[in-house]
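Appendix B. Raw example, untouched.
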Amino acid sequence: MTKEEIIRPENKVYSRPELLTDNYTHYCPGCSHGVVHKIIAELIAEMGLTDITIGIAPVGCAVFAYNYIDVDWIEAPHGRAPALATAASRLNPDRMVFTYQGDGDLAAIGTAETIHAANRGENITIVFINNAIYGMTGGQMAPTTLLGMKTATTPYGRRADLNGYPLPISNILATLDGTCYVTRQAVHTAAAVRKAKSAIKKAFENTLAKRGTSVVEIVSTCNSGWKMTPAQSNEWMVEHMFEKYPLGDLKTQKDPSL
C-alpha cells in the first residue's frame, strides 16, 4: 500500500484530537490524566462545543490542563473549582462549564464547595480523578486512600482508628437533590475508555440541557505515588480500588422530554 493510499480518509484508524495542543505533557508515564484529557478533547470537538466550553482547573496534577486542551480555561485556587464554575455558569448561561479535579482537591480541600454546588444543582459537570493519593505534592494520604494503603503520611498503611475511613464522595453526592447524574468509571482498558467517554458525553449533555450537576468519577492510577510500574498500577487498581469504588452509575435521571 502506498503512502497516498494509507492517508485516504477511508483508511484512517486514528487521528490526534484537534483540540489537543502540541505541548509536552508533565504527567508521569502511565498516568490516567492523559487518557482523560484525550477523551474530553475529543468530545468537545465532536459535540461542537469548542467555542462555548469553559474548563475550570484548580491546583493539583491537573493545574496545567489549559496547556493541553485548547478551550477557554480559568484557574481556581485549591479546592475552589465548583465555586468558580458556579460563577462562570451563572454569568454565562450559554456556556458548557466543567471542572477537572483530583481527589485531594475535590474531596478534602474543596469538600464544602463540591457538596454545596452539587446540592444547589449548578449546571456544571464535575470530572473527578480519584487515584487515592496526593500525586502532585509528594504522595500524601488523600480522603480516598484505602485502608492499609501506604503513602508518604501513612508509611505503615492507613488506619481507621487514626486516619478515618476512605471517603466515598461520589456516593454522598448521589444522594443530593441537585445532582442529575453521578457515575464512576475508569480508563485502564479500551472498553473502559469507551464507557468513560460515553459517561462524560452524557454529563456534558446534561449540562447543556440545564438538568443540574453531573459528576463523573474516574478511578485512576498514580504509579509514581504508588511506587509501581504502570502495568502493576493497573493491576493493583483493579484488585483493590474497584472493591471500594465499584464502577457503574450511582445516579441517573431520565430525560424529562422522553
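End of appendix B.
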